[in-house]
Design goal:
Blueprint (H helix, E strand, L loop, with lengths): L1 H37 L6
Length: 44
Amino acid sequence: MIVYNFRKIFAEKNLYANRKAILSAGVVAFFAVADAEKEPVGNG
C-alpha cells in the first residue's frame, strides 16, 4: 500500500512536470511563430 501511494504521488508529480514542460514549449513555440511572422517572407 505504501509503495502504491508512493508510485501514485510520483506519477502525479511527473504529470505536473510534463504539463509544465508542455506549457513552456507551447509558449516558446507561440513566440517563435509570432517572431517569424514579423520577419520578411523568404528570409531563410
